[in-house]
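Homework help board

Subject: predicted structure for assignment chain

Our instructor gave us this sequence and asked us to write out the predicted structure in token form, then describe one feature. I got the tokens but I'm not sure how to describe them. Can anyone check?
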Amino acid sequence: MTNEAILARIDHTQLKATASWEEIKTLCGQARRYKTATVCIPPSYVRQVREEFGGDPVIATVIGFPLGYSVTAAKVLEAERAVLDGAAEIDMVINIGDVKNGRFDRVLEEIKLIRKACAGKVLKVIVETCYLTEDEKIRLCGIVTEAGADFIKTSTGFGSAGAVLDDVKLFRRHIGSGVKIKASGGVKTRDDLEAFIAAGADRIGTSSAVQLLAGEAALA
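My token output:
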């Protein structure tokens, strides 16, 4: 694949708690220059980025991040606020405790409510695969599909492990035809990027792809 084709699948990401406004502006400038799919940034920066950069780059942000155990009402409010501030894509974290308690009905309802809160925007559902059994991953493929989300996403990048190829392949076998896959966490080399795309990832969340593919020019 060409560098341009890979970069078009990248959510250029900065979600560290210490992220400064200067770092966020640099991220956005890189995304605009190298035409990544989005920038994925903390919710607190969405309005500033929208005001500074307009609609280029496309803004993605995170909801219930990174642990997922915020109450549903808080996640819904976060999603509504993010859309109002200018986010075009929402990456939400499921309540993994509900999964472990077998309360898949609650997981489904929460995703549906957030889907409604960000109607017309892209919704990605982070399931944090490092904490899940294979059966739970398969069950969540069905739930994400039923809830009408646009993507199932492997990881926050803040868990005990990030994306693995076998999970992307598993998702590809079990998600509905209208659901895409985002791999995130630990995807750091060109070989990784190409391997995850070949396995079925439509998007990749990473902080390193622009510098990796564009070299030192990305930092200028």
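Reply (TA_rk): Your tokens look well-formed. For the description, you could write something like this. The chain has a mean pLDDT of 96. That's the kind of observation they're looking for.
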